[in-house]
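Recall that a protein's primary structure is simply its ordered list of amino acids. Everything else, from secondary elements to tertiary packing, is in principle encoded there. The following example makes that idea concrete.
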Amino acid sequence: MTARGAGSTVEIPDGLIAADESLVMTEITYDYESPFGELLPGLTRFSHTYYLRPRKVEQVACTDC
């Protein structure tokens, strides 16, 4: 996976954020080759995209610490 270019556009799933809201998106890809080639031959690629909302405060209050 190559890095996205500055100013590139991405598709965000519908209903995830409202207008003028912010979102942190992370994409990860991991290539795995099993040490047990008989059970899982070849290369397996795991990938996932995470969507997170940034905090709007500097500190989060802990009620049960």
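The CA atoms of residues 33 and 43 lie 5 Å apart. The radius of gyration is 18 Å.
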